[in-house]
């Protein structure tokens, strides 16, 4: 039916939006194409493949004395930091997410709340399946007697990459407002970019260090806004190449002058990390990628047409599950001694990368096949609560709760301190339930006017659309849908609210060890603060490839009750050794909670400085 009739393409009556709602797309569409380009799907597929390969290549697992650990390749091999300019493709995800969000919003026939719920449930389905599976697996391993510290380490390894999702959820929530801003001002991406620079100036100089957290939203939000600008047709002609060239020049200056490092992935021991939080250097790097990809998009679209659509359907599933094969293969291969353990960067280590990648690919393929089978079995109705008022605000609260729970999973893992994270799990389920709450139509409407997402067309409601492991469940049953709830009604004692905000700095070293460093008289000394540890059992020191690693482990007792601010689990810190360090003569002592490591090194003669004359040819 026509828009003026107040009905959508399904024939359902349209409800008036509340005054505080985002502007509807019908009141001012973005200029530019109405459908996304196939290049967008291809870029997303290629990006997830690069992420998976990068994580698998860098997964240097070790197993000594019944303990799993890992070597940081970027810390052990400084030259590999330049490779991050190839493997850092997270900006591509946010770029295409901005484009896809803008394309979806401008084509949506209904209001913002139904659109937002539609976009979020496309993510909530596969993410919920993954979260539940990992929580169950961690609990099974705990009941089977797995070490608390080792369980916490493994459960954290399969949760860290979820950091992407809280930021993405917030940006999806802001898409209607960002699209409206882009429609009014073509240079909208400049606003968050300038904000990133200002935050860097205040946080990196030490004036307001905590302000750096804002760049998680501002930095990735700037890239997301670039995607919206791309969809709006801002990048026409040679503008993308001008953007890429200018950003490359800025990036070169920032890296050369500092304090920004070369690596576009965080390296243990570096004072500044370009990704945690995102800073001006990473934003310039993202602008280079955006300019090149947007410039190539027309040619890519002309060549691939729709060939990437099928592969794109499994992108989210691959991203979510790609670290599980690492844990599975490591558990099978390392404890029995089936795999070699060459030092990171050695010829043997590089040679083992080939069978290592092949094994992970086989396990991943088997996992995707199981997911596909489970998808067909579970393709049933997902019940949602219906309310007459305040569905919009409830949806916003649900997004916030869901994002916060995913943030906690990414920081602490699925088994913090080897225990089940009951509070975080309940928060996540509550957030998913709130996201599913929809508005009921006005009184007097017929049953046919009461679909759970009223602005989806009738024909689309009859289909089961699968995307990355999620089944978008809809119904056109001729009777009124029963009201059900996803929120558990059991009385569960939640932990103290104040405990929920006791967070470590995310995405860096987990529980970093605080240290002091001195170098004098041919002796390099590191003093590490490790109170309450058993130096003979829980503290380990290793050196090699120009770096020194201090690791410690403290297990929580299962009988412990009440509240504790102590840190449990695995701790580590890696520092660079001076040139000429004699690793064979390293000595370590522990007293009064302080570990002191001394490393003799040969001081090199610098010689007397002389002035070099310059001649003009």
Automatic annotation (TrEMBL):
**What Gene3D superfamilies does UniProt report for this protein, alphabetically?**
2.60.40.790
Keyword Protein biosynthesis (UniProt): no
Compositional bias, Low complexity, is annotated for 23-33
Using the UniProt annotation, give all residue ranges assigned to the region (Disordered): 1-33
Q: Which SUPFAM superfamilies match?
A: HSP20-like chaperones (SSF49764)
Regions crossing the membrane: 42-65, 85-108, 120-141, 153-174, 186-207, 213-234, 241-260, 280-301, 313-334, 354-373, 394-414, 420-440
- InterPro entries recorded: A-crystallin/Hsp20_dom, Acyl_transf_3_dom, HSP20-like_chaperone, Small_HSP
Residue limits of the SHSP domain?
A: 506-617
> Could you tell me which PANTHER family the record lists for this protein?
HEAT-SHOCK PROTEIN 20 FAMILY MEMBER
Family to which this protein belongs = Belongs to the small heat shock protein (HSP20) family.
What is this protein's record name? Hsp20/alpha crystallin family protein
Instruction: Name its species.
Output: Amycolatopsis mongoliensis
